[in-house]
Amino acid sequence: MFNKQIQDAAEVLVKQYTKSKKTIVTAESCTGGLLSGAITSVSGASKVLEAGIVTYSNEAKTDLLGVDPLVIKEHGAVSEDTAAYMAVGALEYTDADVSLAVTGIAGPEGGSADKPVGTVWFAVGKVNGEEIDVHTGKYLFEGDRNDIRMAAVETALIMLKDILDQD
Q: What pTM does this model have?
């Protein structure tokens, strides 16, 4: 199902997180569970993936991850603030050490001049004592819906690896 780059990145990720004894939670919107699916395609993923939370609707983002409805109203579901709330909410909902949130516009519809199809926001959350550190990033991917979703998964896997490398 996943291309070689994604499969290889997922395998490296599972090995690194297993070695470090760290756990992951995903909070996914536009990828619809593909990120957690890529991770669980690797044998041994149960040691590192605590949960995968798919919050496709705005209501689910609010109800399950604690995204402030005013943030969605003011900035949109596809925004830096929403992604950051998703990452923090996923960590607060679980006992994971690291979260990766992804929200975007995979198309072919739904884009605008400010947020064209292919716009994807990511947020990585990391437990740091009593605090949660959050790093965000915005990408603009090209291609059809599947291309955009797969590019988001690959980018998320790399981001999860990079945050662990910073230790």
A: 0.97
